[in-house]
# Entry
Amino acid sequence: MDLTQSAEWQSLKEHSTTIEKSHLNDLFRDDPARQERFTFRNQDLHIDFSKQRIVADTLGLLTDLARANNLEGRIEDLFSGKKVNSFESRPALHSALRLPNYRSLDVDGNDVVIDIHAQLSKMERLVERLHSAQARGYSGRPIRNVVHIGVGGSDLGPLMTNRALCDYPCPASHPLEVFFVSSMDGSQLSLLLRKLEPSETLFVIASKSFTTLDTLANAETAKDWIMERSNVEERMILQHHFVGISANPDKMTRFGIREDNQLLFWDWVGGRYSMWSCIGFPIALQIGMHRFRDLLAGAHCMDEHFRSAPLESNIPVLMALIGIWNINFLDIHAHAVLPYDGRLARLPAYLEQLEMESNGKHTTLDLKNVDYSTCPIIWGEIGPNAQHAFYQLLHQGTEKVMCDFIAPARRYNDFDDQKGSEILRKQHILALSNCFAQSRILAFGDHAISNKGEVPFYKRYHGNQPSTTILLDELTPFALGQLISLYEHKVFTQSVIWNINPFDQWGVELGKVMANETLAALNGDTTHSEQMDTSTLALIKQTLELQDV
Ligand code: F6P
# Structure
């Protein structure tokens, strides 16, 4: 039966007519126990859903919807290696990347845990070589700079994590600096090449497919740059200055990366779910392999919870179902991610890809068009900075927006210099005070103010914007692992309800084909010009004219 025709969906529709009329002020007044009722804890995470526009019945109806759509069975399919990526006929086993080495998981007669740990060990050896200054460039000088070249899932995870865990530098005897390059136009690379010493620089080419033009263009530029600066033959440069990470070893070999310097992952790891594989190499370089393993352990801890907890207390499931409630029943189609910690600056961009590339779909698993909304628009920014940018819209605009507030409860507690800790801790508390204040105003509007007196109309805050607050005890590798895994499983759960495949991304393919045609046109080949619209043709013509100047 169609999702929207099911009894469970219809019950939620009916229930929403009551909740639509209630304000969060009413919900808090009517249920003094709602904070405890809707707050959950898992290891280092404390999650408060009480400022969502839900009552106890809402969660009951939502879990009924989940059961009716066989969520429990689908979770088991995900973990056990069934081909949940049905259109590409393969499993999605990012959770296997976090399995401890004493576990096993059979995929097509092969224990993938053995392969996973073999690659992690190979990565560890490379990390050790770099940390102990054994990895040397063409001139014999130790490598000091590592430039990670990748895009999308081959970039966003490590970039986000290295920023998030910047307080955990690896105590290696030989310090390394890790840089990230993703932009196709070469702007990030050109800035770096101005300051790096070629003989001390290693390039890591990270691409699941090893066919992504953005990444290959940057890789070629990097290679040309070292060759030009060194006057050393290509083979030598590739041997000493290039590491590859991919699911396509043949392509890495063809590029010229030697087998020793190839780190592998597999087609059953989705690009945007790959930071737990050797794509995490720059993370291990920055924080050390033991802490990278803590990150995996945190994610695994959330995996175990997601796989075994009853739906009623299963945090990723509840987070997903509350999202469904907001989107499909309360008609909210914008979602702001608001970390109150500068180290999480790249988290919104990471989640934009994770959520929108996974669930931004309109085709169901049985090849129909959905007649309900799927993934909302997700965007975000460091919360305190966003307060001075787009919070005006959250508080007084016309759009309904759901928000995730994310912050560590503790920070600067064991900073090296005791005095510095105290001063900085004040700033952390200041950020937290803003975090809690903002979610209050969003929920309760003017009612949050103690002595409000007469408020002119234009200064009024209506509130009733729902939010979830996620407090991490501390932003450790383990807690970050838990947090990211929480979002991954939320995305999967929503895809199950919406009956879509979260593990493919056909919506990005056409752009690649069209870009190639357009590239040909910009290079003077008119083969495809006849099919082109007048706007595009004029833009190409204008560009070619300006390039001639
Ligand atoms: O174009 C989208 C995409 O395929 C993402 O899904 C992926 O994370 C990114 O490109 C990079 O792909 P690759 O790792 O194969 O270079």
Summary: The pocket of 6-O-phosphono-beta-D-fructofuranose is lined by residues 151-154, 207-209, 212, 215, 271-272, 357, 505, 508 (CB under 6 Å). Residues 510-547 form one domain.
